[in-house]
Amino acid sequence: MNKSFNTAMKLLAIAVSMTASVAASAQSAGTWSAKFGINQITPKVTSGDLSAPALPGTKADVGSDTEPVLVGNYMFTDNISAEFAVGLPYKHNLIGAGAINGTGKLGTSEVLPPTLFAQYRFFQAKSAFRPYVGVGLTYAYFQKETGSGQLTALTNTGSSSPTTFKLDNKFGVTGQIGAAYAINEKWYVDAAVTKTYLKTTAHFSTGQTQEIKLDPVAIVVGVGYHF
User: Fold this and answer.
1) Which backbone phi and psi does 52 adopt, to 5 degrees?
2) Against a cut of 0.70, is the pTM above it?
3) Mean pLDDT of successive 10-residue segments in the chain (227 residues)?
4) Among the four residues 45, 141, 180, 216, which has the most C-beta atoms within 10 Å?
């Protein structure tokens, strides 16, 4: 039994060694890769007060959303790479908070947040497991902002005109930490967590404004292919 166990362990060690070496050419300088995955964005909101006339302490919160994402990567060296992430628009609910906590949905907005990262990947190019860190620039493009009846009731009481709003498009700095694991020479799995430092301003048709720090945290998990 001990002999069989030792043989099995040796075979396992050989398999692990082979897995760790098959990724050598795929993660080297000058190579491209593409990853398809799912990205969940959760804003970590710090809201300013809605400007007068409004109930003091009228704040807002923002819900999360999950959408597919496509990520392209290029290795400049064995350790330094660039990554660009794009995807479908994320749809977020704006929710009453602070003095109006419990009032429910105030509106919705879609956002497109393309991000360009500069990354450092640890370990040698031949390693199957490669953690990485990155820093990037995100452009948050807001679209299709729609106010709810509750928003109109809070900001335009007694009027038949619904309240509309617009969010300012903004740049934000994004930090990233993640890891990739090579399944074979071409295919790999990847997971990363990012945090974007992002602040915007909501402009309402009633003339009111509201500063909102969004600072979203995103978790992306995907499967990639080396070209």
Assistant:
1) -65, 150
2) yes
3) 50 45 64 97 97 93 97 97 96 96 95 98 94 98 96 84 96 98 95 98 96 98 96
4) 216
Number of domains in the chain: 1
Per-residue tokens: 46? 């710090």
CA contacts within 13 A on the Cβ side of 217: 4
Residue 156 sits in a domain whose CATH number is: 2.40.160.20
Closest CA to 73 of 32, 13, 113, 128: 32
**DSSP-based three-state secondary structure for 12:** helix
Query: What is the extent of the structural domain holding 136?
Result: 2-226
Residues in the chain: 227
Q: Which of 73, 62, 64, 61 is nearest to 188 (CA)?
A: 73
Backbone angles phi, psi at 149, to 5 degrees: -60, -35
Residue 90 tokens read as: 């994320």
Rounded to 5°, the CA angle 12-14-18 comes to: 115
Structure token digits, residue 68:
């597919």
